[in-house]
Amino acid sequence: MSSRSKYPEQFRRDAIELVNSSDRPLRQIARELGVNHETLRSWVNTAKQAAEAGPVEDPAEAQELQRLRKRVAELEKEQEILRKAAAYFAREMDR
């Protein structure tokens, strides 16, 4: 949604919510809100497309997620080595 709109973002979100939750026709809701019905339809379609596309991934979050996955893999390898070492030393102690 364009930030250059003469309608505040919260108004647009509320209008979209009203369209999605109401049984009334979009034209009627647009008339009641004082908005052109094609403008309201555009807002609803844009919101629907954004919802279908899913959340926009933040590059910093993606980088952090990659770093954390790498760290988890390293820790899992260390855990496996320690588990094997513990089993080896347990066998040695039984001799």
UniProtKB/TrEMBL annotation:
It holds the Pfam family HTH_Tnp_1. Residues 58-85 form a coiled coil. SUPFAM superfamilies: Homeodomain-like. One of its GO terms (biological process) is DNA transposition. Keywords: Coiled coil. It comes from the Bacteria. GO terms for molecular function: DNA binding; transposase activity. PANTHER family: PROTEIN DISTAL ANTENNA. This is Transposase. It comes from Amycolatopsis rifamycinica.
